[in-house]
Amino acid sequence: MFDPMAPAGARASAPGTAAEVQVRRHLSARQADVVERLLAAAAAEAEARPYAEISVRSIAKRAGVAAATAYTYFSGKDHLLAEVLWRCVQASPNLVDLSVDLPQRVAETARAMGFTSMGPPAVAACTTALLGDGPDVKRVRARIGAEIGRRLAAALGERTDPAVLPVLQVTYTGALLSAGMGHLDFDAVPGLMADATALMTVER
């Protein structure tokens, strides 16, 4: 699952690590186009099919390339689907309105994180892929975890007890996993995050 993931201290991964950037620089325009087509096809497959019915072959076919070509860039379907989720997070808004009360700030951060821009079937397929234990999937998972931690930390601000952050990370990733399994509606996640924040920060 997302590793509650790189707890707050590991905020190293802002979008695109140095290693990622270096790899991208070595792609020709044609290769970069193939990668983009594969990721677009993986996103479309995730919207159209349940996780179990998706394969590298089905993604490659939709992208108009050979399966062997897909394996040149991605280690498997879990790697592809995990990258789709990471792209979604990267593309999502990343602004915090500090004039809003704390629970609502956290809820808005959760709402804007990018997962609501995908349909529930796609999020379910991609979060399932993120549970994979392959090294490429683990690297994507760490990036997503670090970004979630960074955004939640920004929403909490410097005056909040640091102990709140790792608990919220676990709450958020657990809520996404529950939603992916159909036990919780994705639209309920922001409200749940607001409630958890209020419970942990109320003055006693």
Brief account:
By secondary structure, the protein is mainly α. It contains ten helices and no strands.
Question: Can you walk through the features of this model?
Answer:
There is one protein chain. The protein has a single domain (18-201), classed as Orthogonal Bundle (Tetracycline Repressor, domain 2), CATH 1.10.357. 64% of the residues lie in helices and 0% in strands. It is mainly α and 204 residues long. The two termini are 33 Å apart.
Name some characteristics of this structure.
10 helices, 204 residues, Tetracycline Repressor, domain 2, mainly alpha, elongated
When the domains are counted, the total is 1
Strand % is under 5%
- Can you say what the CATH homologous superfamily is? Tetracycline Repressor, domain 2
Largest sheet, described in full? Answer: none
Give a count of the beta strands, DSSP E runs of length 2 or more: 0
Could you give the topology of this structure?
Blueprint: H1 18-25, H2 29-48, H3 56-63, H4 67-73, H5 77-91, H6 102-112, H7 120-129, H8 135-156, H9 164-180, H10 189-201
